Amino acid sequence: MPVSVSEPYDLAVIGAGPAGLAGAVTAAEHGLTVALLDASDQVGGQFYRTPDPELRAARPEALHHDWAAFADLRARQRSGNGITHLAGHRVWTVTRGGGGTWAVHAVTGADGAGERPVCVPARALLVATGSYERQLPFPGWTLPGVVGAGGAQAMLKSGLVLPGIGAPSARAGRRARGRIVVAGSGPLLLAVASSLAAAGAKVPAVVEAAGYLRYARHPRALATNAHKMVEAVVHGSALLRHGVRLRARSAVTAVHGTGRVEAVTVSRLDRDWRPVPGTDRRIACDALAVGHGLTPQIELAVTLGCATRTTADGTSALVLDGFQETSVPGVWAAGETGGVGGARLARVEGELAAIAIAARLGGRPGPAGSGRVARLRRARSRMRSFADAMAAAHAPGSGWPTWLAGDTDVCRCEEVTAGTIREAVDDLGARDARTVKLLTRAGMGWCQGRMCGSAVSCLAAAGGAAPAPPGERRPFAEPVPLGVLASLDPPDEDRP
Amino acid sequence: MARTPADLVGADPDPPFEITMDGRTVTALPGQSVAAALWAAGILAWRTTRNGGRPRGAFCGIGQCYDCLATINGEPNRRACLVPARPGDAITTQEGHGRAGLGV
Ligand code: FES
């Protein structure tokens, strides 16, 4: 096993979710030495996020869909010779090393305490960093008790907790806590609502901004992706069983409460996602889980110069060739980084990438000939076409900014309001997220625009330009303590 | 039907232990993050913002949003959703920058 910079791994896989795991095990089974780096202590990524081992869950699969596929990958990873699982490694940048290798820089150790720098050299890279949740702001979305839909799911899967539950305070009186409204857009909402309900929450409503009928515009993508329909039916019938109401073409347009969520206003939307006057309804609840789809997490690849494309719902994803290679030779990507498409597609792409990488490193011509590869490529294009249809169906309507009040915070970190951003656009002529950021500090805080980037670029586009996806170029993909930077060896790499 | 997430997955952890939130005792389960332990106690906010002084707690749950920053055992700017709870931890509400300068 390589232990020093002089002895690179064949492949470094960044991210141990479905795409990265599938890539790592396939590459190892093809004889490559693999470093599998992931921020978490356990493999699985956000989709197969499992309870901490100390919680000793006898049935973790009760919180998951398609668990058997994960169990298989995990078993192959554990038994796989050639895979070094570098758990708890938060990768913050990748540079070119000497002799055509890559240097993957990570920090280990607890967040903010005892962090240590690590550098992992490798001949090829597979970027499988997944995605994070897209948020669209609305009045009250910064109130405690409003949580990301994916965040609620993540905290439930790993920590076995629900937001807004707990010992009722004196103020709450007799009424039991535990009512969670789920809102936003995208298929994740149904999955989140059904797991929250299964875990004991009351879900008064699932509020979906898109109309499900929009899927009907893509009959071919529907017909060839029966498993997606089955998933929807499974979640849908779970929701029925729990008495959850699904309100399509509606949005939570305001949150009420003083110190925490007490109720939300749900409004019907027109086709551009503008609230229809007179349709407001108030729903009492203790928490709101909200999210508007997922955004590929591609900072590392973008920093390396990998080309991007704009997806059907306006996010940026990596441009990939028929074998998952990015525009930068030697850098492959799989899963959500190439466009959000779900765990099953991620597994197919991870395997395909690993086969291509093994062929390249082995000096063999492209792997196009094999039957397995042909099947993987067919599955990939079938699922990609469904993902595109889904993205189009759930793309934010142009009217969502009408939900905002002047004093609604858009940037949560820097507390920059919609009014301030509109001023920058209307009075100061800002036309893109970067200019808005320079004028207002929106996106300059701790999260570096991950939470507000999509919203800010939409608001900037209101000035007349086409909405450009927010710039993913960040100096570091993870915040790094200065001490870690200072302790790095003098760079012998020529930076890309 | 499961009444709690722990019932649903058949969790059987070691006995709970105690941490404090601004002096108030909160029980945590081995394996839970600080944020998860606070949620389990019905606590949703543990910092106030720099400009508006408004309450915030966990939002993204996965280390991306930095809304869950807390002062843990005197050290500010820790992401409570990433930090495992340990017996005796003292969590205090983080105000603004966290008083002790920027950690990130
Ligand atoms: S909740 Fe977002 S970083 Fe912890």
UniProtKB/TrEMBL annotation, chain A:
Q: SUPFAM superfamilies under this entry?
A: FAD/NAD(P)-binding domain (SSF51905)
The record's keywords, sorted A to Z, are: Oxidoreductase
Q: Which Pfam families match?
A: Fer2_BFD (PF04324), Pyr_redox_2 (PF07992)
| Matches recorded under InterPro entries | BFD-like_2Fe2S-bd_dom, BFD-like_2Fe2S-bd_dom_sf, FAD/NAD-bd_sf, FAD/NAD-binding_dom, Metab_Enz_Cyan_OpOx_G3PDH, Opine_Oxase_asu/HCN_bsu
Every FAD/NAD(P)-binding domain range: 9-337
Keyword match Phosphoprotein: no
Task: Region Disordered: list its residue ranges.
Answer: 463-496
Q: Where is the BFD-like [2Fe-2S]-binding domain?
A: 410-456
Protein name, UniProt field: FAD-dependent oxidoreductase
Lineage, opening ranks: Bacteria, Bacillati, Actinomycetota, Actinomycetes, Kitasatosporales
UniProtKB/TrEMBL annotation, chain B:
Q: Which UniProt keywords apply?
A: Oxidoreductase
Q: Which Pfam families match?
A: Fer2_4
Tell me which InterPro entries the record gives.
2Fe-2S-bd_N (IPR042204), 2Fe-2S_ferredoxin-like_sf (IPR036010)
What protein is this chain from?
Answer: (2Fe-2S)-binding protein
UniProt organism field: Streptomyces pactum
